[in-house]
Amino acid sequence: PHKLRQPPPAARRAITLAFRAKRHIFAHRYAEALEVLDAYAALSDADAAALLLRGAVRRSARDLDGAIADTRAYTDHRPDDARGHRNLADMLAQRGDIDGALRAIEG
Question: Can you tell me the distance from the alpha carbon of 94 to that of 99, in angstroms, rounded to the nearest whole number?
Fold first, then answer.
């Protein structure tokens, strides 16, 4: 039988935090989710997934400015990922910044 290799401790911590955040999100406990996502994002500046998820949580919690900031940071880390640009455009349009939304889509 093949034994599964355990990920390194930092990766295990990141996976655990991501699942904890999702558990809070599904329960609509956005403040708790944001606390966990802050810890997740602090593990690595390169972990853009935390920024995208934190932006979505902030949007759900009606913190549009925070959501836009996190989503912009995500698109800086992952400029080729259309999800970030689409989410950013949606939020900017929601705010009434149609020109900014178009710039976000055009990348």
Answer: 12
What CA–CA distance (Å, rounded) separates 105 from 107? Answer: 5
How far is residue 63's CA from residue 12's CA, in Å, rounded to a whole number? 29
Structure-token pair, residue 12: 């295990």
The one-character DSSP state at 107 is -
Structure tokens, 49: 């997934």
Residue with tokens 């889509």: 105
Are 68 and 91 contacting, i.e. CB atoms less than 8 angstroms apart?
Answer: yes
Residues of the chain above pLDDT 70, percent: 94
| Predicted TM-score of the model (pTM) | 0.77
